[in-house]
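Section: protein folds

Sequence with per-residue tokens
===
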Amino acid sequence: PPEVHAAEFLGSSSSVQALAATGGEELLVRGRNFGAGNLSDSSEWQTGCAPRSAGAISWADAASLPQQDGNRSKAAAEALAVAVGGLPCRSVHWRSDRTLVCITPAGAGANLTVTVQVCGLNASSDASAREGTQSSSAPAPLLVSYRPPAVERVLLFPRDGSAPLSALVSAESPAPGALPALLMDPSGGERIQLLGHSFGPSAREPSAGDWPPPAWWTGSSPTSFALDGNFPCESGTVVRHNDSAVECTSSALPVGLVTDAWLLPAAGGQDGAKAYLRVLAARASDQFAADILGPRSGVDPPDAVHAAGSESFGWPPAGGATIALSVRSVGAYAFDPSAGTLAVQVWPAEGTEGLAGGGPLACSSAAWDAAAGSPGQTRARNATCVLPAMVGAGHRLVLEVRNATGHVVTRAVTQQRLSFAPPVVESWSAPPRLERWARTSDRGGPSVEVRLAGRGFGGADFGPRVLIGGVECAETVWSTDALVTCRVPSMGGQNHSVVLLVGNQSSDPESVPSYSVAPPEIHAAELVGATPGPGVAQLDTVGGLDVLRIRGRNFGAWEWDAASCGPASNASAAGVFEAGLLVPRAFAAAGAAGAGDGSALPDGVWRCLSVAWESDSQVLCVAPSGAGAWLNLTVSLCGVTVRSDESAFNGDAAGGSGFG
């Protein structure tokens, strides 16, 4: 059987090392009887293990098993395998009958055995004959250990969704009051992350997909994790995410409690070092608060900035305004403005979370008012900062004092909400030729470029959107705080509202002229298949036998639906585009409804039995049943109806002419 004599890192003379909990290191295993075959050539293992060897696998079975590490099959791996503390090495490299290289698995724990399996025969480092001797005076069993776990930093995520609070821990028990306090909500339920190293891999039992199936598995996890101490983690909530992060939920604490808490992590049964930090059970919003005083006097024009109840609104979206703030203690604790650096952030309101990368925006030039008292403990102090470019309404300002290590020692949230001035569209413009339909290659897609001018569009690109008649532009491009360009989608109709949306605010549609698409025009018509020439086309009185080609412009795109007409249109989904012939007065007076094919419209028009769109300037009409002479054509697009005697028909600017 195999024997395990020693294990060491490659390049190291020490036989006992602390392994990285993440694994992936090269561990040289020394012993004997590791076999004479090269593991990279699995064919040698076909005869290297007898078919009936305990634990051996037949090559017939191996053919259906997955490969690992190139051309090494599971059969070869079953013949030769290595484990550290019961966990299989990521890979094993055979060197000789006396040496193997194990790429260590992720793990945890101390005083772990190294096990070698050859053709189903196992040998572990705590039971093998060391260095070839089997006497009772053999050296102590060979054992290896992973690095002990350690907590280095604590992150606390406040329940109000504001910036996480960070605290470094001390490796030694501190003197009373030596550590800055970590503010924790007395009611508990806050998410806490413990960051460090060597917490070990995810603890789980081996599954059917594990390779190789460890014959030495004991049924209990050798990488279990535990957390001891008086740090307020709710029982049963400790979860290890990975080797460097553990999470728990805070437990309820007495209000006003101040204590030096300690943590003791243990992974794989191996204790780490104690970590200490101070805990203060007090809601940040209960202890300190901030107020918005308004623009700094003499710096920014206060005309547009107002305060009403719980909101301060009208701040310029382009940024650059200096805002005056006040921080005050509302609990039992004073604060020291000189204890660290002042930082002010704008926390996005609902509906604006995705702006500027989805996180808070930092104010620049945050500073305490030097004229408002001397350094030291205080219960109130004024400050200023320069607001960033931002849009939207209902934001909160968060003021924090951070010490040299980044720990938050004072935190205050403004009582009032901060709102920037909403966008105002003052005008829009488009090239004249684009104020009518222009057919494009994308089947009625965007074809009109409209430039919106105004203010409050944002000092940066916060994803503005433009709605015309309730239909969103297919593409909107931000240029400046005062200029946005959009490509109008295919649509028709008149008097559409123009609205710009940015963040959770929108412009007033009454502040800008409405948008109207030029109505259709009828220029000419001809009987398909008839010889071109002057005169009136003669249609059969029986509908469906003749086809008229109606020429003009602004006929739009056949793909439109009723939504493309906008909410101001009275067009139905079936009546976006219609064409027909006006019923003669004699028929209309008699209440005639056409020739019995149901084609008459309520407004006295014989409707085309069908209309086929060909282009923006040409459509086909299957003539309805009818009678009479010199009838005028009519076309309706998105509820806007025109007649041939109102258009420049056949080159006659005065209109007129018709069909019979």
